[in-house]
Each structure stands twice: as structure tokens, then as C-alpha cells.
Amino acid sequence: MFEKSSAKVEVAGPVAAPTPKVLETDVLVIGAGIAGLTTAIEAADNGAKVIIVDKGPFAWSGSSGINWGYWFLSELDNPSAPNNPDAMFKWLLRWNEGIANQKNLRSLAERIFSEKRALWSENTGSLCVRVPPDKILLQSGTTGVPYATYPWMMGHEVMKRGIPIFERTIITRLLTDNGAAVGATGVDIKTSGFIIFKAKSTVLATGSFGWLYGWAGVSAFSPVQPECTGDGHALLYYAGAELANMEQSSGAMRQFYPATLAGSFGGVLVAPLYGQLNKAICNKDGEYFLEERSTGGSGLKELGSQRSRRGSLYETIGKQIREGKGGPNGGVFYNAKTYWETNSYKARLVVAKEKLGWDACAELIEVAPSLYDWGMGSLAQAVIDEKHETTVPGLYAVGLGTTAWDGNAWGLQAGKSAAARAAGIEKQEMDFKQASEERNRVYNILERKPKNPLRSHVIRHRVQRLAPKYIGLDRTDGGLRECIAELERIRREDYPRMWVALKTRTWNREFVEALETEFMIDVQEMVAKSALMRTESRLNHFRVDYPEEDNANWLANVCIKQVNGRMVVEKKPIVWTEVSPEQIREVLK
Amino acid sequence: MTDRVLATVFRYDPATDVKPYYKVYEIPWKQYLSVLEVLVYIYEEYEGIAFDYGCRGIWCGRCGVMVDGKPVLACMSPVNPGKITIEPLKNLPVIRDLVVDRGKIKSKLHSIMPYLRREKPMEEMPSVSFEAYEKMCGLYRCTECMLCYTVCPVINDDMDLTEFCGPAALLKIALRFYDPRDEADRVAQAVEEGLGHCTMCGLCHDVCYLGTESVKDLPNSFGPSELFYIDHLAVFEDLRKAAKGRGLLGKESGAVHHTAQKSP
Asked: Across the interface, do B76 and A344 touch by the CB < 8 Å criterion?
């Protein structure tokens, strides 16, 4: 049986679906960011035939890698950083406030120190930060060497190995057979051609879903690229895999205008990550209400040793806004001038001034906390075991917004596991009926003409706008219920009206966005339902009506899964092997 | 017409159109309106024109278009009230409307082997002199947006890259020329890839968003790693000096002048 999504579209008779291209491989990697590229290289080096698919331009799109870069956790040049697997394990556990799977964390912590990935990256041509006279800061990207250098170099590693690359290809469904993953179906964005990927192991490395957070005119209020529409999370859900802690996300700042810069790294978005923020953020009365903190640097020390630094930062800002000290758009104010000295991103603002004519220093800029969900505090991801296999055999997940810690180290494990599984399967069977039904569904979306039509962007923006309103800072029981009700209404009333006005098969952005719309509705609902269930505040999940961390009741995972076509949310105990919930409670006190 | 924009947009779908045509769209103007916003507005309010973008902050290099004949990144290009013409990056095959096929240049950028070339992998973290590090940092920022390829007078209208690899490829060769970890002969490679054909006209620098002069000496707590600047001509000059020093390039520029862009 083919897994159904919860959104329905009206079938419009026979569809002019193209003849599918069928490709067979050992390991199919979906997503070509840091996690996906690592997985592909590692699987290939472990003897597997690999195909890598990306919705954007190969090695130049995605969430973390293309945006800000990468930390080699083990090799951080930070005296307070954990310097052995045990310390790393504890640091990670504390950092996610106790809810991550300890088996995974242990395997990650060990791998981080055994793999020497910073050296590996330098051998590919990446460059970690050097500080005179001879200090090496083991980062690639971030405040270090250009963020794109790492995926760019990894992309060349993939090309050197002759791994077939399908860029600009959207995966529409995962294929299963007897409950196990056997590949996926995709649409080539350039030609709208249909591709069936037959694979012994399938790895999802699709990154975050930041594109779901609001709509600023040209983008969500998130620095991720337009591809980050939650495809991976939705595909896992449709395939029957279990996801966990979808309410978790991570934050940045957004500005309100210029629209182009509202969620972009070209603007002031990164403000809350670095430097003396207490000098930058004030309320409408000109009060600089944040406490002084350390300047510059990775911020990892603070993140590791305090209760989610960004989470608490946003609580503080949210409180100011609720007290009526916010600006006309419901934000606080950012003073680029007083922050200038410690702003390591100021070159971007100079470019914005010279090129776009927008001077960040000319006025106080109204900003609001936003989301980008690519890790850093986020645990929203598939439930996986230490081999990175999801609850669906043959289906692996890596880099779904949780792995910016070390997408690299995760990818290494996923690559090895996926290759090992493939080696044990002589011939992958596949029932093409599923793929055939999927082909009809996909091209029906392109061809059908519903009554009272709505173009997909109208529906998408309705879904996106729910996020800052209900699942941003001020999460409440009532708000989340309204949000879920509205999503259900959108699915029931709007989605069947979705119409692709343009029928061309050549680079039809409208068609692609229509295919993504369903993912967005379902992922947004997963977030809202998980947030509703977690009646406490933890990490970046902040409930106004439950402002405290409740370790007595909520040292637990919120799991979500499709059962008989319904979204079922369940509270489940944490997976622990080394540190008991009692011990965690003691530490988190 | 102080409150609106009349955008003339290049339209072409090779699957259905005999030839390209232009269509005019009216857009309300507002402060800081960017070309990217104009494109999204047309897409949402009129029809599904084809264009591409990513980061909205010049760092991904995906949204290059020609605006009034000049190559720009749509995200960070302001639009004034009045008329504007938006076309695809010139001399590249059009996939549809404003989306071009960059495959040819991308292949060139891989074929010049911009990654580290060594006989044996390094076994420990290498030391890199600060001088070399400083020279490399800006070059890592090239986003392969291809704007330079549309203005380079050496590259023909048919985007022939056989004699001259083009500005971005030359920068990437230079990156490894500066890189003490790289063992390949990047000077000889630069000459082979047409260094002598470069006329040092500086047009590539002028269109590059990493050529913004006021960013050049911005003090920064993270040093050159935060450098958002490439001095194209200084980089090419370094390559030329090294090539001349080894007798690989004549005393004069040795440039072969190709026909510059033809008028339509």
C-alpha cells in the first residue's frame, strides 16, 4: 500500500504523465548539504554505488552549509570545549537538555574524536580559520573561512568519485515494499520528467524547514534557501517513520524591511549569535534590557553551559513585547551603530548600503526573534537508532535540522550503515505499482483545473504566516489549537482548490511549489501538534502558559507518526543508557 | 510615474515559443524595492515567470540577471520608479525566461581542479603562513554567480572557454597558487588556461559583489577570514608576475584580443 498524505486533491481523469526514467543504485542520498555530501562520499568509499539528489543547485544550496558553515566540534580551539568523548557526550546531553537519544550521542561523541574531520576537510581544499601568528581555529565557515567553502569542496569530492548527481530534482515520495524503503520518486525541475530511483538503502539529508516560518515578501523569515520546505520530514511521515520533538527549533533575528533582507544573512539577522548583544537590542523606550554577555567567539561555550542561550534570550525579548515595550510591528529594536565594533558580519551591512542603498546604521531597526531551525538547539528529526536507521528499515536520516553540531560525523555513520545494508541485499525487489500511482498523483497536480482555483503560493503563504503568529515565541494552548484548526481548514478547503496556472514542463516553479505545498501543511501541523503536547518550556520551545522547564514530567520525547492516515502524537520516555533521568534532573536543576 | 515600476521582462520557453519576446509588467514601487522583489511580484500577481534565487544576500550566487543591460544579482539591486528591463545572463543558453544553463562554466570550474592537489594527503593540520592565508580568504568567497563571464571581453559571445578559462576560473587557480598546501604547478596551469589572454581591463572586478571597495579595509575581530573582498587585478597581476618570472609569459601582456561583444 502506498502511504497517503493527509492532504487530498481531486483527481481529474487521465493525466499526460511522461515515461519514467528508472535508475538503480545501492544507496540513494537525498540532499546535498554537509550531511548528504558526507553520507554520499562515505557510502561510496565503503564500496556502495551511490546516487545523490538535490532540489537546488548541487553543493550550493541547503540549510547550514551554504549559509554559515561548519564547526568541527572535537577540534574546537576553545579551552572550555570538551576534549574527550566522555566530556563531549555530557556536553551534548546537557546542551539538548537531556532529551536526545544517548546511544546516538555516545556514538557521535566517539566518532567526533576518532575521525579527524578538520584534517580531512583541509585535504579536500577547505581552510580552517588561522589567527596570527600560528594559531588554527578549527572551524570552516561561520565566522571563519567562507561558509560555502566546505560544501563546495565536498561537492568536488563527490564529482571526483564519479557519483551521479541529480541536481534540481524534487523527491515526491519514498517507495516502500513490505514496510522497508526501496527508493524514491522524483521530478526533474528542468524538464518536469519523472524519475524512479530504486535503491537498497535510502538516506534523507534534506535539512531544515526554515521556509515554513512566515513570509516576508521574497522569503520566509529564515536564512535558509527556498528549497527548505520540510520535504524530508514530510516524506518520512508519509513513509510511516516516526519523528520526534518537532516542536523544537532554533532562532535568529529577522528584520521587517527591506523585504529582500528580512530573513537573510545579508541583513542583521545574525545579530543574536555573536558579540555584545546587550549593546544592540533595546525596547521602544530606548532601554537596553539584555544582560551583558561574553563577546564574539563561537558562542558554543555559552550554549553548552546555560539553559539554551537563544531560548532564554527570546523569552526575555518576548516578555518586553508582551509588556507593550515593542515596536509597531511587534518587535524590539536593533542598534547597528552601538553594536558595530563587535559585529563580525558588518561587511555584509556595508554591501547592503552600497548596493541596495539601505543603511543599517541610519536608524534603529525593528527586529523580531525568528526561526531557522537547522540544528543548534533543535532536535526535530526522525527517530533513529545508532546506525541512523529510522523506524522504517532501509531508510536512514541525517541532517534534518538537528545535525549542525556535526552533520559530518552523523553523515559518516549514515554512509557506512547505508552501504553495509546495501552490501547484504543481492537484488532489490520493487513493485512499480506505487511509483506508477505516484506518477499519476504528481502530474494530476500539474494538469488539473479545480473549481474556484487558488495558486499554490496563496496557500503556502497562509501556511507560512501561521508560524510567527502561533508557533514562534508565544506558544499557548489556545493559539496552538487555533493554528491546528486553521491548518486543518487549509487542508480541507484550500488544498483541493490548488491550481498550477502554468502548464509548461520547462522549469515550472509553480509546479514544484505546488508539490511542496502538501509537505508544508503537514510539517507545520506536526510542529503545532507537538508544541501543543509539550506543556512545558525546554530549549527553544517556549510556552507562555507553561514557562518553566518541567523535568519531573517532560524529560521525554514528543513522538509523531502517521497511523491509518491519522497524525498520532505520543509522549515517550527518553532513550538512556548512561545517564539516568534522575541524574539528568539533578544536573538540570 | 513616481510610485510604480514598468518592468520589461525577457520571456522564452524553448518548448513552446518560436523565439524570445518581451513582456511589460506594472509593479507598485516602494523604498528599497529590489529586482528580486519585482520578480517575485510578477510571479505571484501576474504569471509564473521562471527565475532562480537562494539566499537574498549575495552569498549564493543564484539570482544573476541582466538589468538594463548590466549583469547584477537581483537580490541586492535596487529598483527606482520608472522603467526597467530584466533579461537572463547573456551568452548562456536559456532554459526558460531568466533561468540559464550554467553547465558549461560549471564544468570549466571543475575541470581546472580547484580542490587541493597533492601527491599524498597531509597527515596533520598544516601550518599556513598568515600572508598566504590573507590572500586566500577573499578568494574562497567566490559564489560562481557567473556575472564576470558576461562582461569579460576575452570571452566570445558563444562563451568559448577553450582558450581562456574566464575570470572566476582564473581566481580559483590563483587560490591554489597562493595555497601553500597545494603542490600542483598552478602558474603553468594559469598560462595554459589563457592567463595571457586576459587584458587586465578590470570589468570582472567592477561587476563582482566582492569588489566593493569600502569593504576592503573594514576592521574585523576575526581578521581576513571575514574578508568580503577580492582584488581581481592584483590577483591576476600576481599570477602574471610569477609566469613572467619563469618565462612562461612574454614581457608584454601577450594577450590575444578577441572580438568584444557584437552589437545586436
From this structure: no
* A546 secondary structure, DSSP code: B
In sequence order, the 6+-apart residues with CB closer than 8 A to the CB of A67 are A147, A223, A224, A225, A265, A374, B55, B59
Task: Say yes or no: A11 contacts chain B, CB-CB below 8 A.
Answer: no
Q: Complex ipTM, two decimals? A: 0.93
Mutate which of B53, B110, B140 to test chain A, going by most A C-beta atoms within 10 A? B140
| B95 touching chain A per CB within 8 A | yes
CB within 8 Å: B50 and A506: yes
Given an 8 Å threshold on Cβ–Cβ distance, is A217 in contact with B118? no
| Residue where the block lists cell 569542496 | A153
Burial B247-261 (b: 16+ CB within 10 A, else e): ebbeeeebbeebeee
Q: How far is B225 from chain A (nearest CA, A)?
A: 5
Taking only the tens of pLDDT, chain A with its 589 residues reads 344 455 555 544 455 778 899 999 999 999 998 889 999 999 999 999 999 999 999 988 776 656 655 666 655 555 556 778 888 888 778 777 788 888 888 888 888 788 877 788 889 898 887 776 666 665 443 434 445 567 888 899 999 999 999 999 999 999 999 999 999 999 999 999 999 999 999 999 988 888 999 999 999 988 888 999 999 999 999 999 999 989 887 666 788 888 888 888 777 765 445 456 777 889 999 998 877 653 333 333 333 333 444 556 667 788 888 899 999 988 899 888 887 776 767 888 888 999 999 999 998 999 887 765 544 334 567 888 888 899 999 999 987 544 345 566 678 889 999 999 999 999 888 889 999 999 999 999 999 999 999 999 999 999 999 998 998 877 999 999 999 999 999 999 999 999 999 999 999 999 999 999 999 999 999 999 999 999 998 877 888 899 888 999 999 999 999 999 999 999 999 989 999 999 988 877 6
Burial class of B31 by CB neighbour count within 10 A (0 to 12, 13 to 18, 19+) = exposed
The type of residue at A297 is G
Most B-contacting residue of A54, A63, A509, A512 (CB-CB within 10 A), to test interface: A509
DSSP H/E element including A462: helix A456-470
Residues of B in contact with A342 (CB under 8 A): 221
